[in-house]
Amino acid sequence: MNESRVIGPIRCDQALVTEQDVYLFREGTHVRLYEKLGSHLRVHNGDEGASFGVWAPNAKSVNVIGDFNRWNDQAHKLAPRQDGSGIWEGFIPGVRKGDLYKYVIISNFKNYRSEKRDPFAFYAEIPSQTASIIWDLDFSWQDEDWMQNRKIKNSLQAPFSVYEVHLGSWKRKEEGHAFYSYREIAKELAQYLRDMNFTHVEFLPLTEHPFYGSWGYQTLGYFAPTSRYGLPQDFMYLVEYLHQNGIGVILDWVPSHFPSDANGLAFFDGTSLFEHADPRKGFHPDWKTFIFNYGRNEVCSFLTSSALFWLDKYHIDGLRIDAVASMLYLDYSRKPGEWIPNQFGGRENIEAVNFIKRLNLQVYQNYPDTQMIAEESTAWPMVSRPTFMGGLGFGMKWNMGWMHDTLDYFSKDPLYRKFYHNQLTFSLLYAFTENFLLSLSHDEVVHGKGSLINKMPGDDWQKFANLRLLYGYMYGHPGKKLLFMGQEFGQRSEWDHDRSLDWYLLEHPKHQQLQRWLKELNYMYKTELAMHENDFDGQGFEWMDCQDWERGILSFMRRAKSSASPILVVCNFTPVPRTNYKIGIPLGGYWKEVLNSDAKEYGGSGYGNMGGTEAAPLPSQGKFYSLSLVIPPLAILFFKQQKFQPEGPF
């Protein structure tokens, strides 16, 4: 502490919290608690200092300790509000931005004493240090163009191609393998995303988390970006820079559970305040974490405020909600007798369902140009349908069924794939029941699962051909797209959060060519309306042939809402090339081969259709026209209808 500073006695005569705040807080509808609770630098009666506010209804006393009072737990005692809200508050003159602090809470319950970090802190010490830091969120934003137009970029009809990133291991400094800061990585990441034609980046949780190995999914700082990579304003700069380069930013957010660290939310005031007291509802057996009590209105206000905080103060364009299934089901990952049924005897967590609906309503009411995306792995109905229709109100839902079926199919030796053909076609039976996002995420390349390239069967040539085919099939299939970092260039080793991706692989042609293929897929997906405009509408998809399981061929057409040219997609899931393969199509004209995964520039053998082919007026498979195609082995072809055949050599 600077000895020249004078830290005054605490004042409790004026606080930020109003009666209206208390009413909304207790009702569960306060959406901006971060403006009232926590620490806030301000001037009070002519004195500079900070207001403090914390919710601890079962506390006997709450003191603020910090480096400014030499961690003296008797120096600055907060006062409880006399309205039954459980909020303690006060103003401390002389404290400054950058001062460290904690709350010392002595409970009415057996005089339980603990030192807690501030649940509403904007900034915290770098883990494993545990103090909160007094900070402000001042920043001069320069992303007006993006913010004014992002409604178009984030709409359900827009291209949505997401690059999923764990910031601490995307790339590290060569010397000492230290982290890049938010500011240091901004230019390189933005340039890479632009070069690769991704539309959005999704960060694994950057909310402050004590255990780096949790990848951010064990969050304690629901209002603080992790200090591992810099200041809050540094993260703002990263978001701003991405926006200036036309890239949307999605943040992974975890309202489903929190870690049991003694300095965090657990037993916050000596009782189960944020979590359920009964471990059958309040403790997660898989992750050894606590589950939020969604039946407590104040907890709902806390979580909803956190969600809106990132959209408000950090200009985040969407939230991906982690582990929604664990919130919806009371028996999630539990054996009989280890869970408590709801009041109707069922397994649905009605309190969590109500919270999710209210959360989505609040987000879309306040920020209608953002997206809420659910990671939900079950058949819960209408996850991405509006609440007024009986849905949960999300904008999109990860298609976990498509991911599991598709990866299982691709892991099979092509000789036996004909027996599993339905794994490719089944997803189209339900593809338009939700607004699906197709994900090949970090979860598929960890915990012994290996990298995507090593899931593919065959020799190295076949592995790369299969992977190009997998990516092409994902981009052809209806739904938005997400790919985890490193898989775009064929990362061979399983993802390791403790080191950088293997960028040296791009010194080898096969990895460069795979990366180029993904770049071209993204470009086609972005620029061709037929490939994205009807991602969630069955009118945009039509099978040409889904029954040729014997030869492992699938063909279908994608259409736009407008009069834009349709795209024909043809897949060969076997290593056998097909010549003079006839496909019935409903439209005549010249069909240009716009992408071929077997082209030599992508590492293929160079089989193809000489740039395109003319549809013959010969009916086939119930269609008025047909194409006679050369279909390369383990490859996917994309054709675009042209009104006239181009003149001259191809």
List the helices and strands and how they pair.
Elements: H1 19-27, E1 38-44, E2 47-55, E3 59-66, E4 79-80, E5 87-93, E6 100-107, E7 113-116, E8 132-133, H2 144-153, E9 161-165, H3 167-170, H4 182-195, E10 200-203, E11 207-208, E12 221-225, H5 232-244, E13 248-253, H6 279-282, E14 283-284, E15 289-290, H7 297-313, E16 318-321, H8 324-328, H9 350-366, E17 371-374, E18 396-398, H10 400-410, H11 422-425, E19 436-440, H12 452-455, H13 460-476, E20 480-484, H14 509-527, E21 541-548, E22 553-558, E23 567-572, E24 578-585, E25 590-596, E26 612-614, E27 625-631, E28 635-642
Parallel strand pairs: 9-10, 9-20, 10-13, 13-16, 16-17, 17-18, 18-19, 19-20
Antiparallel strand pairs: 1-2, 2-5, 3-6, 4-5, 6-7, 6-8, 11-12, 14-15, 21-22, 22-23, 23-28, 24-27, 25-26, 25-28
Helix pairs in contact: 1-7, 4-5, 7-9, 13-14
List the domain count as a whole number.
3
Q: What CATH architecture label of the largest domain applies?
A: Alpha-Beta Barrel
The 3D shape can be described as elongated
**Biggest sheet descriptor:** 8 strands, parallel, barrel
